[in-house]
Fold:
Amino acid sequence: MEKIVVKGGKPLCGEVTVSGAKNAAVAIIPAAILVDGVCTIENVPNIKDVQVIVKILEYLGASVTYLDSYTLQIDSRNVKKDSAPHDLMRKMRASYYLLGALLGRFCKANVTMPGGCYFGTRPIDQHIKGFEALGAVVRQDGGVIVVEAEKLCGTNIYLDTVSVGATINIILAAALAEGTTTIENVAKEPHIVDLANFLNAMGANIKGAGTDVIRIKGVSKLSGGTYSIIPDQIEAGTFMVAAAATGGNVLVKNIIPKHMESVSAKLTEVGAKVTVFDDSIRVEGGSGHSGANIKTLPYPGFPTDMQPQIVCLLSVASGNSIVTEGVWDNRFQYVGELLRMGANIRVEGKTAFITGVSHLAGAPVRATDLRGGAGMVIAGLMAKGTTEITDIEHIDRGYENMVEKFKALGADICRVSE
Ligand code: EPU
Structure:
């Protein structure tokens, strides 16, 4: 087992290039199952979650080749199986996209309930509602979900909760269905638009991604093609917050600034200087930040996946801050770790009340989940003394070369064997 060791107190300076988006990649790679041809997918991030989803596709019979470190070629024409292996499925959340993709391809899917970060119960009732509306019968049997349909027919679906996963799964199931599917109250995250763009590039007819209503005219076949995944909005935000939190000066490159608006606005509000260019953003931290109130919301609101990182910054901002989690039931597990570093935070239900302290002190802490782990790295970069972060397999699931990227910005950070 490895851990990350950070000696804090150095302002981050320089340039960092953001990788392809994890949450787009883990949707687009399974979507290749629907394609009757060869897909070339560029800007694929080199992270554990991608490795797992690639292994699942290979198990199913797809031929997957890396043309270079970031370009995947997938040929799913030989996929015959409609069920995915239990041990791989449980390693990540996005494995449930196999449900929509296999259902769309074979009118049948048989997969284990997915794993991923624990934020309280993570129901999939809206995914099931969508599949049933398209004509499938869904059974849950001892942790396995079986979805079957004679055929899938377009219909109108209203999501009771704005769900990224349900929106994506229904798009996958409907892309080859007969007729038109309209999904209302959908999620608008950039990776949903990216998935729709990928499928359209392969011949699908999907309109409205990025708005509240998506219309999918089923097509009889998707053919191969080439597509490049968007940059990772959350990796970009993590570096932006880290730059501000350490009083640094960092140019975050290869991003879509529009995707960063809520994070840029909050960083400006707490006193950082944010300069936006065409495909990069410079963040200058200055000395000291003021507290702020934040509520996480579906896109274009402030992302829940940036909540731990910004709470770490606010833990040393002057005055009081209130951060309300508006997406998940329970996403403050990492706060216990931050308290070990001297933060003054009280969590009541879905709200964290933060009183800024003068500094954090290095301590042994755990990455409780992917973004909580990113928060611990930022806390370590800000803290006086040495922070040792264990359970970093969570971080490796979603951040490519995080330690190397921070090191190149001047951080005193390394991975060591425990
Ligand atoms: N929900 C339901 N029923 C459903 C589906 C969702 O009640 O059928 C609820 C959830 O319990 C939650 C809310 O709706 O309270 C939003 O869940 P959503 O389905 O949008 O989340 P997800 O698709 O499981 C994705 C990301 C998460 C990110 C959320 C919200 C992927 C693989 N995961 O999860 O990313 O937090 O959207 O933006 O895309 C991460 O990258 O660290 C991460 C956890």
The first strand starts at residue 2 and ends at 7. The chain has 14 helices and 23 strands. The pocket of EPU is lined by residues 23, 26, 93-94, 117, 122-127, 161, 163-166, 187, 304-305, 327-328, 370-371, 398 (CB under 6 Å).
